[in-house]
Write a structure and sequence with these properties.
The chain is α+β, with helices and mostly antiparallel strands. It has two domains: 9-230, C8orf32 fold, CATH 3.10.620; 244-325, Immunoglobulin-like (Sandwich), CATH 2.60.40. The protein has helices at 28-33, 43-53, 57-71, 76-80, 93-114, 119-132, 176-179, 203-209, 224-229, 235-239, and strands spanning 73-74, 116-117, 137-144, 160-167, 170-174, 181-184, 189-192, 210-212, 216-217, 220-221, 232-233, 244-246, 251-254, 259-265, 273-276, 282-284, 289-291, 294-300, 308-313, 316-325. The chain is globular, with a radius of gyration of 21 Å.
């Protein structure tokens, strides 16, 4: 999980505007799992409880996601100070595989017993529990897009991991690490905030924020340029299905006095739309027009606009862009 050690204050303002309650975010499966004990004696007992309480593959996969997200916390200290990689020797392929399995089992049990993990522990535990209830599950490693500085990066990195789980003959995307909460840069710590949106996430949203090391998803090549140069979207964007129609690029070349045009689907004039200037002051959008099931509006680029611009809807950050001044001719 890639979490920036420093960041611009306005990127994280959405943290303070989470205006929905925990109960409102819970599905019926979540409500049942929320009443589970925070600790089980063994992973097998947790898997048995989930198998007993839920009949469908979907509900079991969701129950595992919810229990982990509610009870395993992101170990930010381990992220900052990762343990040394444990090496081992082996004399045969069978011995090698046994030792790899033992390391993986140790990782799973450490996450389960300590209630702390980084993304490797989250994904390994999710896969183990999913397979324990009869589900096919894989771990995918790749890049993650979490901060303004990720817009327009030159290359991808292998810095995160997530899962795919097979439900009703369809592979579903799951990021239980992000489901458990977020990093609050103003407090310098992780904040527990259950996010259902990273279970069975729409691939279009998922791959705006994730890029697998393989560069492909179910055999289809993904665009690395779209990932690196696309805008940064936020949790509320996914939750509310706010589709960012334009600009499609996250890097906008601008001149002073130029108007930037934005179009966002599934939002209307009843919503409050604003952005923050470079002094972190809110500026309300006044010229929004309803268009094709969304809003189209313009923002004047001048000296009051900073290097990045983040659009907010009803006090929730939705999308950010990087602004690059055009060279004068």
């Amino acid at each position: 999980m890639r979490i920036p050690k420093t960041a611009f204050v306005f990127l994280f303002l959405h943290i303070f505007f989470l205006n929905f309650t925990f109960a409102q975010k819970l599905s019926e499966v979540d409500k049942i799992v929320a009443k589970y004990p925070k600790s089980f004696n063994t992973t097998e007992k947790l898997a048995q409880k989930i198998e007993k309480d839920f009949n469908s593959d979907h509900d079991r996969a969701r129950a595992i996601y919810t229990w982990i997200a509610l009870n395993i916390k992101y170990d930010y200290n381990a992220f900052l100070n990762p343990p040394k990689v444990r090496g081992f020797s082996y004399s045969s392929e069978a011995e090698k595989q046994r030792k790899i399995k033992q390391l993986n089992d140790d990782l799973i049990q450490k996450a389960f017993n300590s209630k702390k993990a980084v993304c490797e522990g989250f994904t390994a535990l999710y896969q183990y529990l999913a397979e324990s209830v009869g589900l096919k599950c894989e771990i995918i490693r790749g890049d993650s897009k979490t901060s303004l500085r990720d817009i327009g990066r030159k290359t991808t990195f292998s810095n995160h991991a997530w899962n795919m789980v097979l439900i009703d003959k369809k592979w579903r995307l799951v990021d239980v690490t992000w489901g458990q909460g977020y990093y609050d840069s103003s407090k310098g710590r992780m904040v527990n905030d259950f996010a259902p949106i990273y279970f069975d996430t729409d691939p279009d949203y998922f791959f705006a924020k994730h890029f697998p090391d393989s560069g492909s998803y179910l055999g289809t090549r993904l665009s690395k340029d779209d990932f690196l140069n696309g805008p940064l979207i936020y949790n509320k964007t996914i939750e509310k299905d706010y589709k960012i129609k334009s600009p499609e690029s996250g890097i906008l070349e601008v001149r002073n006095g130029e108007k930037l045009t934005f179009e966002i689907k599934n939002v209307s004039k009843s919503n409050q739309v604003f952005y923050l200037n470079k002094k972190n002051q809110p500026v309300k959008v006044q010229n929004a027009k309803e268009k094709r099931g969304g809003l189209e509006f313009q923002i004047l680029y001048d000296n009051n606009v900073g290097e990045y611009i983040t659009i907010f809807i009803d006090t929730n950050s939705i999308v950010s862009y990087k602004l690059v001044q055009k060279e004068r001719i």
